From TrEMBL:
Keywords: Hydrolase, Membrane, Mitochondrion, Mitochondrion outer membrane, Necrosis. CDD domains: HP_PGM_like (cd07067). The gene is Pgam5. Its main location: mitochondrion. It is found in: Mitochondrion outer membrane. It catalyses: O-phospho-L-seryl-[protein] + H2O = L-seryl-[protein] + phosphate; O-phospho-L-threonyl-[protein] + H2O = L-threonyl-[protein] + phosphate. This is Serine/threonine-protein phosphatase PGAM5, mitochondrial. Gene3D superfamilies: Phosphoglycerate mutase-like. InterPro entries: His_Pase_superF_clade-1, His_PPase_superfam, Mito_Ser/Thr_phosphatase. Belongs to the phosphoglycerate mutase family. BPG-dependent PGAM subfamily. GO terms for biological process: positive regulation of mitochondrial fission; programmed cell death. It is an enzyme of class 3 (hydrolase). GO terms for cellular component: mitochondrial outer membrane.
C-alpha cells in the first residue's frame, strides 16, 4: 500500500489498448485521501511492577491521560479508531482517553508492545538489552510500521484521523522510518508521557511530521518522561 503500481497486475495487459489499460487500472489503485496518525505515548506508570499487569498507571499518570484525552477531544476531529498496545499501561491510558472520545472504537494489538526496535547509533551506556531482543522485538515493531503506517486505501474517499496509543521506543522508531531517517537514530528522540505525535500521510505517499511529543497542553508540574 505504498506504491500503486505494485497493486496492478501487469500480466493482465489488454493486447489492444496496451499501456492505456495499465494507466486506467493504476488510477483505481491510487489513494485519494490523507491519513492523520496521532501517536500517543502512554502516561506515567508504576516502574516497580515486576510483571506487566503490575505496571499500572500512577495517580499522576491518570491525570496525564485525562489531559491528553481532553486535548484530543478539543481538536474537534472525527476520529475513526483508537489502536493501542496490549500492555497494561497503554490499555489503561486508552481507557481514560476514550472517555473523552465517545463512540470511537478501540482495538488492542500485540504489534505495538514496547521493545528494542534496532540497536541505536550512537550506542548508550545506560540501556543495553540482550542482542536477541533486537531480533525478536525489531521484527515485530517493523511489522507494526508496515501494517499501520501507509497511504490511505484507494477506496477511502475522505481524510481519516486515527489514534495509536503505545510506547516511546515504538513511536520513535516509527517516526524515523516514516520520515526516511536512519532508524538507528531513534534513541536520539525524547518523548514525554501522554505526549502527542502527529504524522500526516498524503495520497502521493509523502509524510510530514506536524508535532513530535507535544505536551504543551499539560501544566509544567504534570509533565514527566519516565
Amino acid at each position: 500500500r505504498r506504491e500503486p503500481l505494485a497493486l496492478v497486475n501487469l500480466k493482465k495487459k489488454n493486447e489492444e489498448t496496451g499501456e492505456e489499460e495499465i494507466a486506467s487500472r493504476l488510477d483505481h489503485c491510487k489513494a485519494k485521501a490523507t491519513r492523520h496518525i496521532f501517536l500517543i505515548r502512554h502516561s506515567q506508570y508504576n516502574l516497580d511492577g515486576r510483571a506487566d499487569k503490575d505496571r499500572t498507571l500512577t495517580p499522576l499518570g491518570r491525570e496525564q491521560a485525562e489531559l491528553t484525552g481532553h486535548r484530543l477531544a478539543s481538536l474537534g476531529l472525527k476520529f475513526d479508531q483508537i489502536i493501542h498496545s496490549s500492555m497494561t499501561r497503554a490499555t489503561e491510558t486508552t481507557e481514560i482517553i476514550s472517555k473523552h472520545l465517545p463512540g470511537v472504537k478501540k482495538i488492542s494489538t500485540d504489534l505495538l508492545r514496547e521493545g528494542a526496535p534496532i540497536e541505536p547509533d550512537p550506542p548508550v551506556s545506560h540501556w543495553k538489552p540482550e542482542a536477541v531482543q533486537y531480533y525478536e522485538d525489531g521484527a515485530r515493531i517493523e511489522a507494526a510500521f508496515r501494517n499501520f503506517i501507509h497511504r490511505a486505501d484507494a477506496k477511502q474517499e475522505e481524510d481519516s484521523y486515527e489514534i495509536f496509543v503505545c510506547h516511546a521506543n515504538v513511536i520513535r522508531y516509527i517516526v524515523c522510518r516514516a520520515l526516511q531517517f536512519p532508524p538507528e537514530g531513534w534513541l536520539r528522540l525524547s518523548l514525554n508521557n501522554g505526549s502527542i505525535t502527529h504524522l500526516v500521510i498524503r495520497p502521493n505517499g509523502r509524510v510530514a511530521l506536524r508535532t513530535l511529543g507535544d505536551t504543551g497542553f499539560m501544566p509544567p508540574d504534570k509533565i514527566t518522561r519516565t
